[in-house]
Every structure is written in structure tokens, then in C-alpha cells.
Write a structure and sequence with these properties.
Layout: H1 4-11, H2 15-23, E1 30-31, E2 37-38, H3 41-55, H4 60-72, H5 77-119
Antiparallel strand pairs: 1-2
């Protein structure tokens, strides 16, 4: 079991973020006898997944919805699958947008380099 500070350091997030995720019912840590939060390996894996969802721009409301469905059990599998497929589509759109921006930047960089080399 890990403390909130250990988990924050391990995952490179703040303790505030962990408390926020708890408040939003995205994660439910175990409480020890003195009421301190404790996290196990399955909590860590779940948080790693949540962090990836956030990094790929999934709104917190959708992450909360996914977490809620997961807690409800197996009868929500189809709905969870739909949420993830929708998010995957969003990520693919982000990738296309980033690739187009990268190509445009590469063109501009190349043009500047050509211009500068002709000035020498």
C-alpha cells in the first residue's frame, strides 16, 4: 500500500490532483485506521489509465462517467466500450491535426533555411 505522497511522486502528479480525483469519484482509495488514504497496485494502474485519458484531452466529466460505469459492474461494458471508442476517434482526429501542423511547420522551416542559405 502506498501513501498519497508516494503515489503523487510515483505518477508525477500532485496530491491535490489525487484528492480532486477522489472528490470526483474517479478513484476511491482505501482508508487506514487513522483515516489516511492508501493506494494499492490496482489503484496505481487505474490512475495511470486516467492520466493517459487526461493527457489525450478526455474531459473530466467523461472520465468520471467511465469510472462510475466501471464501479457499476459488467452490465456497463458496452457503454464503457462506446466511451473508449469515441475517445479513440477523438485521439485519431488530434493525430491528424498534429500531423498537418507538423507538415506545415516543416515546410516553413525548410523555406526559412533555404532563404538563409541563399543569403550566405
Amino acid at each position: 500500500m502506498y501513501t498519497i505522497g508516494e503515489v503523487a511522486k510515483m505518477l508525477r502528479i500532485s496530491t491535490h490532483t489525487l484528492r480532486y480525483y477522489e472528490k470526483e469519484k474517479i478513484i476511491i482509495p482505501v482508508r487506514d485506521a487513522s483515516g489516511d488514504r492508501r493506494y494499492n497496485d490496482s489503484h496505481i494502474k487505474w490512475l495511470q489509465f486516467v492520466i493517459k485519458l487526461k493527457e489525450t484531452q478526455m474531459p473530466i466529466a467523461k472520465i468520471r462517467k467511465y469510472a462510475s460505469l466501471a464501479l457499476e459492474g459488467d452490465h456497463t461494458t458496452t457503454e464503457r466500450l462506446n466511451l473508449l471508442e469515441e475517445h479513440k476517434h477523438s485521439i485519431q482526429e488530434q493525430i491528424r491535426t498534429l500531423k498537418a501542423a507538423d507538415e506545415m511547420l516543416e515546410y516553413k522551416i525548410s523555406a526559412y533555411k533555404d532563404f538563409i542559405s541563399k543569403q550566405d
